[in-house]
Amino acid sequence: MTDSEPHPEMHLPAAVERLRAQYRALPSGQPVRLAKTTSNLFRPRERGARAGLDVSGLDEVFSVDPVARTAYVGGMTTYEHLVDATLAHGLMPLVVPQLKTITIGGALTGLGIESSSWRAGLPHESALSIDVLTGAGDIVRATPDGPDAELFTTFPNSYGTLGYAAAATIELVAVHPYVHLRHVRFEDLDELSAAIDKLVGAGDGERTTWDGEPVDFIDASVFPPRDDDGPARLEAFLTLGTWADEAPYTSDYTGMGVYYRSVRSRHEDWLTVRDYLWRWDTDWFWCSRALGVQNPKIRRWVPKRLLRSDNYQRVIGLENRYHVKARIDARRGLPARERVVQDVEIPVERLAEFLRWFVDTVPIEPIWLCPLRLRRPAPTANGQWPLYPLAPDELYVNVGFWSTVPIAEGDVEGDVNRRIEAKVAELDGHKSLYSDAYYGPEEFWKLYGRDQYEQAKRRYDPDSRLLDLYDKAVRGR
Asked: Would you tell me which of 12, 65, 91, 234 could form a disulfide with 86, CB atoms 3.0–4.6 Å apart?
């Protein structure tokens, strides 16, 4: 047994043991990947001869402890399945990323965020332990204070390049049956930023309120001015959610209704807890608009079961592979388009500055905002998670924008993304790596913890059977 293997008393589910056996049966020099049918990554990948590990047995909630408020789950368990299992006990994960097919392992190694993140931080902060299949072929139970604490702290934002989450034990929190929503309108970005800062700051040690009502969830939507049916001037809506035991009514945005449109048209709303958690999934936030299914004449004929983010993702995947729409646009004389699908973290005091620049520079709307502060300092000397070093005491606001833009004359594909990367760095922000990245190696490693990563890589993937983080995140290998 090496110093990276589990303790002899550590009991693992059969599916985890099978995963380890699969890995060890592969030729020692053969690169590997996970054989899975879904992905929430938006960057292109080279097609190569990489062995695929069967992870089908890891989409399972192995146990829920309603007394301790914990769950032990397979790394490929989708949040949809996890939420169904925990809601049966009146519980949920502290942070539930917005899309149903995001997996717990994906959120732990690739980050995740939601409207509870202003208080609960990121998903990996509520992990008590992570069972990792390392590049060396061992199953390691990484904990904040155990012998593999180094892996526990470098795993977030490593995107499977140090190992794969085979299973994890996570904390849960109690739920109420309903969520009461209030959509507060702003026309001034400085006032919106100040309101977010005040709300989150007021939550230190006590339950924050707005107009006398407690606040449990915070996110926002920004609608820049448009020439068609959009606003004539910029509008932003701060959406405040509050747990409730009763509701005078509940809205349904899983059929003809489109949730993001309700943000502009309703002052308040009520959703069941499950519908609140998946309010963005039905229309992939607002991205289903590009596929035509928000048109009522089309939508009425689409079965509810097909109104899901993973189905839209498959359609986009086919376009990325075959470029049918791009070829049609070219024949029509339309300019080529650049994909701009990003989430970035901006310090709240620079938020309005970033948004003004973005609205003036990048023709994408709407824009999603979600405040974020680390739940507690990371178990490292400086309190930061090495590969995504958010400052422990800083309030950030996640800014999400997901669309394509025409490539302007004189530009090349990637120029808009490069300008965004430069602006984020200028404002002391951070950028998630689930989508396209254009950093050069030196700049990339300055931002994403090179020394700590390379040290962990030598220990947990000594033969480099897994990809390097730069190769995976930027080069798309």
From this structure: 91
